[in-house]
Amino acid sequence: MAPRHQLLVLCIVSLWAFNSVAIKWGLVDLPPLFLTLMRFVVVSVLLVPFCRVRRAELRYLVPLAFTFGFMHFSLLFVGTRYTDAGTSAILVQLGTPFSMILAMLVLKEKLSLQQIVGILLSLTGVMVISGSPTIPHWWVLCLLLTSAAGWAISNMIVKKSPPIKPLTMSAWVSCLAIPIVGAASLLLEQDQWSALQHASWRGWFAILYSAIGSSILAYSLWYGLIRKYTVNMLMPWSLLTPVLAVLFGILVLGDSLNQFKLIGAALVVTGTCVAVVNRSHLRALWRFQRARRS
């Protein structure tokens, strides 16, 4: 990978990681479901007018609005309200091994021994993190694991769907999720508009950063790199997201770093890396780099 692209992918991963800090800032001023709703509104306003969708694609976009829009994003925001930025980022990373398990059960894809070992390591990390004081209640852990499961289910839907441009998918999933998340916020939260009117710069920063920086900008750059490089080459970089989220949480928010979080994070990230990294690809890449130096 060219040095400028290495720098670019590091910037993308940093944008995703800092989103955890932005969410924590926003949750100081705004209820979590309403914060999620405003994120979807901003994405929809900016993208929907420029993204056309076919009727055949709607049968996949509507369920994605629930699994990705509500299950993943809404529950991520709610769960993050009750824990720190790094812990939520680590647990949501389990969407990758969850996807592999679902692919085995639903799509009948076989798992190699390496992948099984990686998944078991990741799940062991969850058990370690569950003992951390940053998880105050068992249901907070369940919320974040359900958020990760929502991302995994969304991957299954996307795999079955016809090719849809990433920004088009982001635009219409956000638009179709608005009534779902809006209804949930109306039923479960209070004084949303008053909170928005009295929100500080942190609340507005969270809305705009989550919608524009973390979603539109980061994913546009990411999919641009996917057109140049293989997924196996880029995927290990994405594993830096929870690591950087923990670091940003400590530096910006003053989060603690206890042994449960440290060991659990190491197990989750290592397990995910073992599960997704293709050994034959790494051997080929090593041979290529060695030949280039010789």
Terminus-to-terminus distance:
18 Å
Structural class: mainly alpha
Largest sheet: none
Instruction: Give the topology string: H per helix, E per strand.
Output: HHHHHHHHHHHHHH
Query: What is the helix content?
Result: over 70%
Q: How would the global form be characterised? A: globular
User: What is the tally of beta strands?
Assistant: 0
Describe the fold and architecture:
By secondary structure, the protein is mainly alpha-helical. The protein has one domain. The chain has 14 helices and no strands. It is globular, with a radius of gyration of 19 Å. The two termini are 18 Å apart.
Write the layout of secondary structure elements.
Elements: H1 3-29, H2 32-47, H3 55-81, H4 85-92, H5 95-106, H6 113-129, H7 138-160, H8 166-188, H9 192-197, H10 201-226, H11 231-238, H12 240-253, H13 259-276, H14 279-293
Keywords:
294 residues; 0% strand; mainly alpha
Summarize the structure.
This protein has helices spanning 3-29, 32-47, 55-81, 85-92, 95-106, 113-129, 138-160, 166-188, 192-197, 201-226, 231-238, 240-253, 259-276, 279-293. It is mostly helical.
